[in-house]
Specification:
By secondary structure, the protein is an alpha/beta fold. It has 13 helices and 20 strands. The longest helix has 31 residues. The radius of gyration is 28 Å and the shape is globular. This is Flavin-binding monooxygenase-like family protein.
Amino acid sequence: MEATVDKFGLRHHMHFRVECVSASWNEDGFWDVRLRDLMTGTEYARTASILVSAVGGISRPRDVKFPGMDTFQGEMFHTARWNHKYDYRGKRMAVIGNGCSAAQVVPEVARQVAHVTQYARSPQWYHERPNRRFTCFERWCFRHVPLLGRILRLRLFLASDNMVTTYGPGETATRLRLRAEAHARDYIVSTAPQKYHHLLVPEFPLGMLRPFVRRDSSPSPPDRSAGCKRRIFDPGYLESLHLPNVELVPHGIEAIDQTGIVSTDGVKIEFDVIVLATGFDIQRFLAPMEVYGRGGRSLSQQWQESRGAQAYMGTYVNGFPNFAILFGPNTFPAHNSVLFASEVQVAFIAKTLLAPVLDRQLSTVEVKRTAEDQWVSRVHSRLRGGVFEAGCSNWYINSHGRNSASWPGYAADFWKESLKPQRGVFLKTRQSPWWMWYRAKRWMRTTSWTAYGILGLLMLWMMGGQRSGLGIQSSPRLGV
């Protein structure tokens, strides 16, 4: 990441330790953005023609409140707000939570702390991580064989994208989930300590689209609040449970006092540091900033009235001109790379908003309400019947029971949809009739000298070919 920033000369465009407090669209056609310097606390304003939110959804920790947590005298922080100044070596650590964050934290700290206790109320589906070390010969080939690395990345992408079938409705999806459950169950049993098998192997199916039977063969209605959770590809977590200083506690938190944690079974354990692996508040896409569009309308209020966040292509919202969101509503691929989805949005924003405004072709771009509603309706109709909307409880579903996070199909489909002509989708305000001239100037200014050099050599080669052809044609005349 650091190398990429320097390669493209981005560093001097960035301002760190600055947060956006609010942004308001004014009648002159600009965004008034209020910012706060986190070092000094000073607030100031800037004006912009275009506003893009790139805060993402997995950035703001979920606000959890346990009784007495304010009285704890040790160190306490969320995994996303890790205190790197705190030395946890040789300390007694508690980890609250059992999602992807906890599975990554426990094996990393286990060999350095005196003792780590993880509080996990429910199990998860753990799968073997499909990673392996490449041989020296393979690494040599990646460096020297053209396109080999890209071909491998394409294979990985397509394999991941094909996993979308597992999350959908239908008999085929059910069979795939049953197969995935069997593999995961075998992996958990073969990797984790036997004393934790009854805590780690889920009683619920991978997807709640079929009834299930308990291990004692007694019929039981599906516990829809337990299933439909994300799969975890094990980063060494199950193996770390064999360590003598690692303990798994299958209970919730009753209270936290000055010296430790009291779990729901009444047992108290004292700790030096508590790590909150309690996930993220992904339903509040732009928190903590407030965004106000035309007529001072609040985006958070608009989303509250629509029973959850929504945006056309997860990017544009009606009533908020020249405003775009990266990693917005219904862009989360549960089976593929978030980076790919964000890159697709970047290209989409550049094509539909940045280029037209910078080239003075348009002064404002705003998605139509009908286009936004129709796109969102299509997405939710495709989500219906999938595992994340099967009446379960997970962080994809908001308080209204609406899935405002997931993209329902292949990641490649999201890319294809961004390439479609956007006829009748946007309300546009025309600006300059000379926009083609401004676009040509931008192209000339942003084209690299390398490209100019290649173009010059190509032109010389073509001119040389033409002269050679003329010489061949004229030689018979010279002979006469």
